[in-house]
Amino acid sequence: EVQLVESGGGLVQAGGSLRLSCVASGFNFDDYAIGWFRQAPGKEREGVSCIRTSAGTTYYADSVQGRFTISSDNAKKTVYLQIDSLKPEDGAVYYCAADPRPIKMCSRRLEILHRQGYEYDYWGQGTQVTVSS
């Protein structure tokens, strides 16, 4: 059974930092796309970053470039999302997702996959990030 478990969310002041973790199990972690998505109340789900676990290739949405850093520890089957210089608009539920098509699902098209009809196969339950101004 595939499982993705996120943790690390919380309440933080604007300008602060958080590190989110996504622990995976039940699939071949070494050749997957792992993505981080977020959804704020009343807004569409947004792809913010992804990593191809075999090559370590990463992509970021323009809105988070330079502030978010995604990384993977394949031995621990864990993907991290370091979030720095948090802004109030970063507040959302953050989800990690996994897909066995790393080239298709982790690319510069991450932000528009949903509109093109592509969805990651597996999803976690999410972790809440709240940013106070």
Helix content: under 10%
Tally of separate helices:
1
Oligomeric composition of the shown chains: single chain
Measured distance between first and last alpha carbons:
40 Å
**Overall radius of gyration:** 14 Å
Low-confidence segments: none
What is the percentage of strand-forming residues? over 45%
| Total count of strands | 11
Q: What would you call the structural class?
A: mainly beta
- In round numbers, the mean pLDDT is 96
Write down the secondary-structure element order. Answer: EEEEEEEEEHEE
Q: State the shape.
A: globular
Give the biggest sheet.
Answer: 7 strands, mixed
Describe the overall structure.
This protein has 133 residues and is mainly β. Helix content is 3%, strand content 47%. A hairpin with a 4-residue loop joins strand 7 and strand 8. The chain starts with a strand and ends with a strand.
Give a nutshell description of this structure:
The protein has 133 residues and is mostly beta strands. Helix content is 3%, strand content 47%.
How is this fold's topology laid out?
Elements: E1 3-7, E2 10-13, E3 18-25, E4 33-39, E5 46-52, E6 58-60, E7 68-73, E8 78-83, E9 92-99, H1 102-105, E10 122-123, E11 127-132
Parallel strand pairs: 2-11
Antiparallel strand pairs: 1-3, 3-8, 4-5, 4-9, 5-6, 7-8, 9-10, 9-11
